[in-house]
Amino acid sequence: MIKFFLAVFVMISFFANAQNTATVTRKLDSLFEKTFNRDDPGGSVLLVKDGKIIYEKGFGVEDIKNKKPITPKTLFNVGSISKTFVASAILRLADEGKLSLDDDLYKYFPDFHNTAIAKKIKICNLLTHTSGLPDNRKIAEDSVFFLTAKDKENFAPIKQTDTLNFEPGEKFEYSNPAFNGLALIIEKVTGMKWQDYVKKIIFKPSRMELSDITDGPHPESGVSHGYLKDGDQFFEKDYGEEPTFAAAGNGGVWSSVDELWKYEQAIQKNIFLKKSSMDKARTVYTFPNWKETAYAPFIGLCWFIGNDRGIQLIGHTGSQGGFRGDYQWLPGKKIFYTFLCNTPYTVEDIRHQVFDILQQYNWLN
Fold it and tell me: Which of 9, 42, 335, 365 is the most buried (most CB within 10 A)?
């Protein structure tokens, strides 16, 4: 008799969950169909619960010329989500004993103009945006040069720094050039292009077969284009129009929502990095000389550790040219959410609307 009632309970729970999921799917359809116009640049979204893809759809077009529809496999430039790949490559080299997070910059860049500054700043400072290095690139004055400037050219002005904005570890200040520098460190340690190293140790074992990384021009075909809008007209804003777009260490990865889920699964299964290293990367990293009083540290080794409705979020957003991206893992709820678009929707606003739906149907309770 007990087995009978247990079986009935399981069956009722199954149908209730299925009905709940179907309702959430309809609500998400309604949200995104209102957000995107069918023939305009749009986006792709993927939602996972307990290891199962619950929602995976594309909206709008990847190219306004050929009107090719966006799908979950459409490749977008993921912007600063790329930084997590660079960080993982650095941590892999640390796992292998080929570098230390406490190595200073002088070890890798002995041509730094100010030796004392180079010896103060550690790799861990670059990973956590706490180096104090100013972004002294003259992008506005030399925008034509920066249209094709790669990591080396973007990091070169930083090596001429004479003064820091603060002492390393004292504060947080977001830095794109820091990750251009980290990409160059990968090349110095491995003797190969950092893009090839990431493909070898992350893309391949994670089965990210379509993903790519900028090395100069973005891939010539098979990817979406980024767009901004002037009045009622869209205009392209990616490689060739957006200065620093070719600087790949801070934002050069091209991927899809489908393959970002493969990336997250590989992270959780410790495919390319030791569990202890990824746990460290996804835990708030602190420095003993922290002086910022307005807020406490909130970043791990590249990963941002946030909170929404009392629920922990681990992730990263991305913004480059006309592209925007959002990548979030909710460990307490076993929910993974990612959203990529090729025109600048405010990804945080969209995430809040998605989470409102999930909360309404008890997915976040």
Answer: 42
